[in-house]
Amino acid sequence: MLNVFTASQLIQAAAYVIAIRLHHYEQTRARKSSGTLLLYWLATIFVLLVTLRTDRGASHSPFKTHAAVRLARYTMLFSVSVLFCAELWPRKHAEYVLAEDGDDDTSSDSRFGIRAPVEDANIFSQLTFSWLSSLFKMGQRKEISEDDLWEVPSSCLPANVAETFDAHWQRELSHRTPSLLLALWKTVGTRYILGG
Questions:
Q1: Residues 6+ apart with CB under 8 A from 149
Q2: What mean pLDDT do residues 155-170 have?
Q3: Which of 4, 5, 113, 191 holds its CA 20 to 30 A away from the CA of 127?
Q4: Quick one: CA torsion of 16, 21, 27, 30, rounded to 10 degrees?
Q5: Is pLDDT above 70 for 194?
Q6: Binning pLDDT at 50, 70 and 90, where does residue 95 land?
Q7: CA of 36: how far to CAs of 25, 43, 169, 189, in Å?
Q8: 188, 157 in Cβ contact below 8 A?
Q9: CB burial class (10 A; 0-12, 13-18, 19+) of residue 125?
Q10: Burial grade of 4 (CB within 10 A; 0-12, 13-18, 19 or more)
Q11: Cα–Cα distance between 170 and 179 in angstroms, integer?
């Protein structure tokens, strides 16, 4: 007979297997960490910490948790913490390379790569602006000029933003009372909430 505890453990194990497969896929093929997967690992760590704290507080009660279960939870906490850190670790660290004296190659692509670091930043890097660290380090060594900055990310180019806005506005026009504010929000709202 399958009870609720066993069923929840099986569902949790299946979720871990799916998340680990997604983690492997992203580590090998994606340039950017998944915000959903990062938040999943963080929530799992939080739940395991609360569970372990509850187990520790219940050690004198009649509902004492078996030592093997506690050991399994500590092992899971360690494993999930390692996966969270691995997912948080940047895929490709874009450091600034200062132009040497006499170096006439000042193109942005050759020095910084094609993409701006914000395009590869995970949700925590975007919220804390840590994707700007290499620019700040460069600012400590020399005065930053316009040539030292990255190109605008493709999602922020005026033509792309206008195209996205137009699609949202056309959808709004199909409603009885179109909302310009809603079309603007759908176009750039979440970008401004994340501060980028």
A1: 108, 135
A2: 89
A3: 113
A4: -120
A5: no
A6: very low
A7: 14, 10, 28, 19
A8: no
A9: buried
A10: exposed
A11: 11
